[in-house]
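Milestone M4 deliverable, item 7.
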Amino acid sequence: MDYDENLSDEEAEFEEHRDDHDDEITRQECTHKLSMPDYIMEPSVFATLQRYFEAGGLPEQVVDMLSNNYMAMAQTANLLAEWLILAGTDIRTVQELVENHLKDMILKHFDTKKADAIFADGETPGWLQEMIEFPTWRMLFYKLAEEYPDCLMLNFTVKLISDAGYQGEITSVSTACHQLEVFSRVLKTSISSYLNDTDSFLKHNISDLAKMVCHGEHTYLYSQILLYTLSQESKGGAKIKRLSQELQIHAKERGLDVTAVTCSLIGGSKHARACQATAAMLSKSSINPADVTILYTAYSSPDPPPVEMIRNPCLLNLFIDGLFTPGLKINPEHKEKYLHILAYATTISETYKRGVRKSVNKDDLSSTRKFLKKAQEICSENTGGQELIADIPTLFECLQYPVAAKGILTWIKHIVSDTKYFVHNTDHTPVHLILLDEVSTCQSLLQEQAQQLLVKLFESSHEEVDVLVQLDLKKMLLDRMVHLVSKGYVLPVCSYVKSCFENQGCDISLIRYFLTEVLDIIEPPYSKEFAKIMYPLINNEDITASLRTDDGADDASNFLSYCDENFKGDAIFSKQTNTSL
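Output delivered:
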């Protein structure tokens, strides 16, 4: 009996000793934290205080530790910010200054282990939910996620951002590619944005989407299967097909071989030989006669493969380059095959019902092939301006056919990009650029490519010709841009000229020349988008002072008056005269 009582007392003493030891360890841990600089500002300070007091810590020591280690860094920063505001600095500028410095410090000292430890208690901190509501901090998380893709805290934060409805911002974050739910949501948002404003999306957002989609084989396959399914819909299907092709082009530009995915989605297994020939040319980015012969045989048969198999932008560009690049010779025995495949891919219309092809419309095949052949023969035989004059009427006729116009535009690009071109072609408007005007007139879908070519020529140095000739040459190129404006390609051209002025990319006399020509061909009413681009240029006295008359009856004054009367609510349309930047 005495033995049992002694044993019970020893156990109780041991437990008490162990509890004292645990309390000592807890107090040491809490003391370490409470002694850290500005720990009183930490969100976890109350939890630490509770642990410390439960372990027998003394309140007096807590007060000493917190007060002695209070550095007031945050308060000092707020005080300095208030002084800057009192000194006259704009409050937004001060806010950006503080935020940018804080972002730099976080980027410099970010520790993934400490970040992951935030979720040790299994709860999402309230401050994290608050941070993702602000664009500045969301952008910081995107940067960190790109730099530390394996950080669990950052991956979770990206998902939080997506759940909060900001998935439209995440297209450039590779972390999204590792989470199916986030990836699907971002892809859905991107597709919706594309359908709502196709031109703007292709200009500003397609690169970010392509980067995300091309992150890996699984993301590319998933995206293309989804787009293929959507492209079968009658409403919006054609636009989705375009997006799928744009992503394919970007994948090729990144050096990725996505031919297998492309062929599998168009039913290549049913037409194995034709599919293999197409895949071989796409993989090698070159055409060879053996594969062309296989395709020609297949698409000349009574039951040809689906036209979608060869209606591929990358493949069509290979054929157009092969036919219209100066200096490339095609075996006459195979030329008809090239022409037939290219004409077939761009003119055939197929009707399907429940997945079964019911008819193939070949009404335009013969005429397209005929004029495509004429255009190719003329372009392959002539490069000089004088030699072309007799063939101009025939080429104008060929330009009525989109594929022939694309081929002629490709040929023009190669000819006029020669550094010696304007040395040998001294006419005010060389024949090739007259043809470029006609391309813009006949085929509106090629106007963007025509503008790109004109911009390239306009920004070239042309050191081979005299300085005065260079000025006249640039005026002639601006005439071509004005022609594009007259054919409906307005905002991109005017935006480019405005950017030239803002970036001081060309002589101010050229800006004045362009405005004079444009003012001569336009009349009210003007859209707000157009007026916003043109108003700052026309309102600038350094540019248009010589164009205005005292009675205000000139084109420039009439334009400014119209804007002042019709767009009064917008700050950009102020009557105050501007001068050069």
